[in-house]
Amino acid sequence: MTGIGEVLPELVIEVTPTFVISTALATRDFQDVHHDPELARERGSAGIFLNILTDTGLVSRFVTDWAGPDALVRRISLRLGVPCHAHETLRLTGRVTGHAVADGEDRWEVSVVGANSLGDHVTATVWVVRR
Amino acid sequence: MTAAIAGIGATEFSKDSGRSELALAAHAGLAAITDAGLRPSDVDGMVTFTMDANAETALARELGVPELTFFGRVPYGGGAACAVVAHAAMAVATGAASTVLCYRAFNERSGRRFGQVHTPDGVDNGWHYPMGLVTPAASVAMFARRYQHEYDVTSEDFGRVAVLDRRAAATNPNAWFHGRPITLADHQASRWIVEPLRLLDCCQETDGAVALVVTTVDRARDLPRHPVVIAAAAQGSAADQFTMHSYYRDDLTGLPELGLVGRALWAGSGIGPEDLSALVLYDHFTPFVLVQLEELGFCARGEARHLLADGTLELDGRLPLNPHGGQLGEAYVHGMNGITEAVRQLRGTAANQIRDAEHVLVTAGTGVPTSGLVLSR
Amino acid sequence: MIEEAARELAARGESARRVARDPVNLPMIRNWTEAIGDDNPTYEHYAPPAMAQVWTMPGLAGQRPADDPLGAMVAVLDEAGYTSVVATDSEQTYHRYLSPGETVEVSSRLDGVTGPKRTALGEGWFVTTRSTWYVGDEPVAEMMFRVLKFRPSGVAGTAIRPAVSSDTEFFWAGTALGELRIQRCGGCGRLRHPPGPMCPSCRQTRPGYVVAAGEGTVYSYVVHHHPPVPGRAAPFVVALVELTEGVRMLAELVGVPPSEVHIGLEVRVGFSRVDGELTLPVWRRR
Ligand SMILES: [Zn+2]
Predict the structure, then answer these.
(1) Residue B332 annotated to the active site
(2) pLDDT in tens, A99-127
(3) Domain assignment present for B11
(4) ipTM of the assembly?
(5) Domain membership of residue B102 as a residue range
(6) Structurally, how many domains does chain C consist of?
């Protein structure tokens, strides 16, 4: 039974260069900072890093892994923090923080934090309908 | 020449002196005056660097020097080192003063570090600093790259200067790097600062002060220390000269302003490269040590790397270089500690004493209008 | 000027709709789920909602349409010296899940521009856009997207600026116009850089200038690693270039990895605008 305060199972992503590049390309993001380490460094980064569309996808996966295949994701709101470079470990943790009925649906608010060695990479709020 | 160095003094060399630059200047100044067997009231002239933050008046007040009849300053950073002695020598030769205190004092490590990014004034600097060439290391690296290209010189060739300096510093108790020699492998493993310069190609940053007393040879003979005679002193600025950025000359692999100084020194002293007992060459960055050896006629253009590799310049070699450890090994006091080392060698009181030292060449900052000295027993 | 441009762009409302390259399709969905590691079986029948924007990404060769409000606002801020960008927030709302075979279209508008604000990265403006994805006339997803366009700390405030005199102002006036100017003596015609008031050849004091072709070769160069330099990301290359006109000139060499720079590299001048008062020449590979 879902309830406010419920803690979601942690999701740990080993952010390999392959992960950074394959997710960037799968989200059709061809910016060089997501696949070319030399150019990424030239532009002032420590190396290639995750793109935002992948963050959105990971937060979605993290919540539906918990909520189940029938759940419907209605909103993903995210704020970006420190970058997530290749060779980082990204740890997603979450907790149910709210409940509301809207458009005739039971919507749960889940707060998610994705953190790596530099700090919080992404802080998200997800509205999900559990069915 | 009719002038001599009668006294030398210095503070300890550190990374954080814990006191003001004026306190450092006063400490070194008093030590030099005392070393000469004089009293502050004997001093009637002062010369320092344009860059020095301590007013002559302030230092005179601290030391209790009552009257000054001569004071002057020399510009262009470390290029002033030997020139302050030259100016002092001219003052005592003309009678403008009888006893001149030369000094340089700074908290260059704990205070304003030359190796950090600064925004200098001056129209000339506008062609270099805004473009991203912002430190002395970067300015010298531009020359070093071209020198490497034209003469097939490697980073290891530069590294041999650092190894030599640190080997001498290791046995000099006054050196910051006393007891800490390095290998060529250490040099090669040190990080890039501005390619082609590595960390160990760059001199230290130091808090400290050095001072010395110049008077006439005749007067110096009556003082307790054995006088060190200023056999020749010269300054030099060459065609199309810039400060650190003489990039617009046909050739980037020489230091013509130093060549000019060298010729004046040989002519003025009657002493040639073959007569010298030791060399104290300004070493803020290793590449210009090679260029100086060539410019002064110790070897042909592009050949200095062989001189460094074959042992000639080692402490036990034919022509020892920087027996105190230089500014990479002992301390960076804008070249002034090189002059006091030459004095110690000629007095016979150096930490790494060279037997029967008779004539020592000292040079000042490179890449800028510069100066040099030949000092003799 | 920034506020005015923002008001004008916001008043334009929604951009023309842009149609996705492909309809929603299983192969792209499977590439996405495989890469993200999402094994949700629903995605054998529906597209992951988080893919909404993926369908309309411009792709490798694509370009932003001329009426894209974010692109237009970014250009205004670039011009004002706020040259760096970082995404700060995004909020996606999914009205319904999409099925393979549906074709989406997207339309965007500028929601607002606020600033200038002091941030940890430097002074900047927050630019907020809103996009809507449609199937036919039905809105199926929406997104609020916010970026910070900023002037990296130090670039404007402590940018190393040249001291300019009446002898050298022609050079800097030239860079602002995209011209690389070399001083030319009005008496003997000698070219000279850096410039000065009196010709060292003929001692005339009537300097003019020529506009350089802007091409040359690297005569020497350095790769700066340390210490950090405000407004520049190390390592960066500074090159002394011999111009075809015969004078040497110093500038940053951009767009070439340090390992590929060598003496003799052929370069062409470009211009890097720091702000309204300073434009620096830069070298690029020819
Ligand atoms: Zn002329």
Answers:
(1) yes
(2) 988 888 889 999 999 998 878 899 999 99
(3) yes
(4) 0.96
(5) 3-112+209-218
(6) 2
